[in-house]
Amino acid sequence: MYVYLDNAATSRFKPRGVFEALAKDLASSANGGRSAHRDALRASLKIENCRRFLLDAFGAGDERCLVFTKSCTEALNLALFGLIKGGERVITTANEHNAVLRPLYELKRRGLIDLKIISQTHDGRIDERDIISAAACGDIFVGGGVSNVTGASYDIAGVAKKIKGLGCKIIMDGAQSVPLADLNLKELGIDMLACPGHKGLHGVQGTGFLIVDKSISLKPLIFGGTGSASKDESMPEDMPESLEAGTQFTGGIDALREGAKWSLEHIKETRQNFHQLAKTAVYNLKSAGYTVYCENCDSGIIAFNFEDADSGTAADMFDEKGVALRSGLHCAPLVHKHFGTLSQGMLRASLGVETTARDIAYFCSAAERVAKRLKNLR
After folding, report:
1. Do residues 277 and 349 make contact, with C-beta atoms less than 8 angstroms apart?
2. Coil/strand/helix, residue 17
């Protein structure tokens, strides 16, 4: 038996429509937005259909547009480097991924921003009151709502409602919270939402997007051909063309629409499944002697360690027993600094929509056997 529990990195399950969309495009590829023959027009239509679907799905309204990227990391870089002009006061939290932190550190090194990082509470959570208090004196808040390491969460929708009237722009990293969080960007006043295609939306790697308020002018990250205004030396002025230089991944984008459609249709069952199965896993891990760093079961993410055993060594033992976990620092060093695990790292089990009670039972059984083996190594 083999149990895949690394869905926070990339979801294993893909709906049938994702396979079909990708295969169909590979069999009849054309470059959307370039040529005018029927296949190229069909490719353009696939891209625009996905764009419209995602805008509607997240309640973006006509005031926002969507830019396709190759990842959530690229989308966040586009949001931050495209927006910052200099002198902004930016707020984030210590539970964020390096896709947020490293761009902000670089902007700070360049002397362009004043950066405030909100620390965790003793149990590794972020107090929403601290975000709201800091936002009253800030220009931009960047956060995701869910830690990719521990699953610790805060109510990103509730925070957005409270700070949108403070004049503080909101950039949301949706890597772990989409589609679990119920988002209506227009109602919540979220200015930008960055998402990957290959995680909770069950698309393929190499896809992502940024939804951005049209009142915001972003500088391009990449310059080149767009299929429009080709005689001009500069990039087109209007989004999304101004931010989508180069050939789009048409098959991946069409597959993303199929994956997102399936994911949103099944979100109620996914939430229930995550909560019930994660609760069972947490109970059994603690019973076997593991430290569990956050017991929030709604995200389907569980971070744990066995005493002071190296997380990489333990992950190899799980792999030998047919359980795929992630170990190490998970691209979020400030979480490990808080818990004192910078050297040890953490094990992480992250559930997927296909995870069953039988999978969790097997995982818990493997955890008991790994714990015994680690004890014998001491």
Report:
1. no
2. helix
CATH of domain 3-12+266-377: 3.90.1150.10
Residue ranges matching CATH 3.40.640.10 in the chain:
16-265
36: burial class by Cβ within 10 Å (0-12, 13-18, 19+)? exposed
Paired with 6 in beta bridges are: 350
Fold that domain 16-265 belongs to in CATH: Aspartate Aminotransferase; domain 2 (3.40.640)
Successive 10-residue mean pLDDT values, the chain, 378 residues? 98 98 95 91 96 98 96 98 98 98 98 98 96 96 97 93 92 98 95 98 98 96 89 89 95 98 98 97 98 93 98 98 98 98 98 98 98 91
Question: Where are the CATH 3.90.1150.10 domain residues in the chain?
Answer: 3-12+266-377
CB 104 within 8 A of CB 276: no
CA 8 to chain CA centroid, Å, is 8
Closest C-alpha to 155, from 194, 136, 183, 133: 183
For residue 21, give Cα distances in angstroms to 195, 314, 347. Answer: 20, 38, 35
Give the E-state strand segments of the chain in sequence order.
3-4, 64-69, 88-93, 113-118, 140-143, 169-173, 192-196, 208-213, 291-292, 301-305, 323-324, 347-350
CB proximity list for 376: less than 8 A, separation 6 or greater: none
Number of residues that make up the chain? 378
Cβ(130)–Cβ(118) below 8 Å = yes
The token duo for 214 is 């049209």
Query: What's residue 47's pLDDT?
Result: 97
